[in-house]
Amino acid sequence: GLRRCLISTDMHHIEESFQEIKRAIQAQDTFQNVTILSTSETLQSVKPSDTCCVTKNLLAFYVDRVFKDHREPNPRILRKISSIANAFLYMQRTLRRCQEQRRCHCRQEATNATRIVHDNYDQLEIRSAAVKSLGELDVFLAWIDKHHQDTSA
Amino acid sequence: PCVSGGLPKPTNVTFLSINMKNILQWNPPEGLQGIEVTYTVQYFIYGQKKWLNKSECSNISRTYCDLSAETSDYEHQYYAKVKAIWEANCSKWAETGRFYPFLETQIGPPEVALTTEEKSISIVLTAPEKWKRNPEDSSVSMQQIYSNLKYNVSICNTKSNRMWSQCVTNHTLVLTWLEPNTLYCVHVASFVPGPPRPARPSEKQCVRTLKDQSSEFKVK
């Protein structure tokens, strides 16, 4: 099988950063009946061979859309979001290397999974969509933990 | 229907979650001592369409409600809310933040079995079990949910008062190079790498290493 593409980023630091802003960000999200990532059909149904490509696509989703679309007035929260964004840029470089080493194939299934995420995003007004996606970062961080961290450590 | 806002809201509405047993709990509204207030609870599955009733938690006088069954799909996220009722008056709803069992449940301590030799203690750990709806349901170990479940084993030599701890991933651990005929105490906490979660260690267990057999023979 495909040797897993491990991300050596200190996930603990990113998760702590998000934990500190999670309540405040999720409180800004008033559309409880809509989700961006958390539909169980989307992420839970991704096959192991497609997880790396989905991760790559979701990193691009956050870096190219969410972080750019979000307007954060609170400087403390903004600093935390920036540190998470920088960590995602580092992860993107790691996955790019994996792709060059042919350990991160992208098939139609992965593209379909991430299109659902983009479609969910497009359903909402841009600021609401961005804050909702930020509020669901714990889902994506748990996904990275599960699929790209060395569990023997 | 009651007059909404006629009473102050319950406070500190939170989920207390241990091994996926998810209890909604709250404090009574302030300033209503001596008044027989009752409470009604609703819950919401994030991404779904409407709030749902929990019939066993309608007009209750206790300040907690077991929502384990309603929140058993731990990969989903949830909200819950409660309001206070007294005669024709009721409070506005008091709501939790978004609750994500997979990331927020507290992993209970493992079962700890100790056996001793002269200079070693063998520790066998059994992962805690996930909450189950009915006692006769088959058990699911928290290890099955968290493949990266780890244990923090804390050991104390009660003679020298020396303490140390080890992080282990497998279920057996042998402590070697111990002092014979010495009482050692052990307690173990489970944890999962990821967002910080509260941890509750196991009860402290103490065992004495066996006497040094070689010194016994000399004495004879």
UniProtKB/TrEMBL annotation, chain A:
InterPro entries: 4_helix_cytokine-like_core, IL-10/19/20/24/26, IL-10_CS, IL-19. GO terms for molecular function: cytokine activity. Belongs to the IL-10 family. Coiled coil: none annotated. It is found in: Secreted. Immune regulatory cytokine. PANTHER family: INTERLEUKIN-19, INTERLEUKIN-19-RELATED. Disulfide bonds join C5-C98, C52-C104, C53-C106. This is Interleukin family protein. Its main location: secreted. It comes from the Eukaryota. GO terms for biological process: negative regulation of extrinsic apoptotic signaling pathway; negative regulation of low-density lipoprotein particle clearance; positive regulation of intrinsic apoptotic signaling pathway; reactive oxygen species metabolic process. Pfam families: IL10. Keywords: Cytokine, Disulfide bond, Secreted, Signal. GO terms for cellular component: extracellular space.
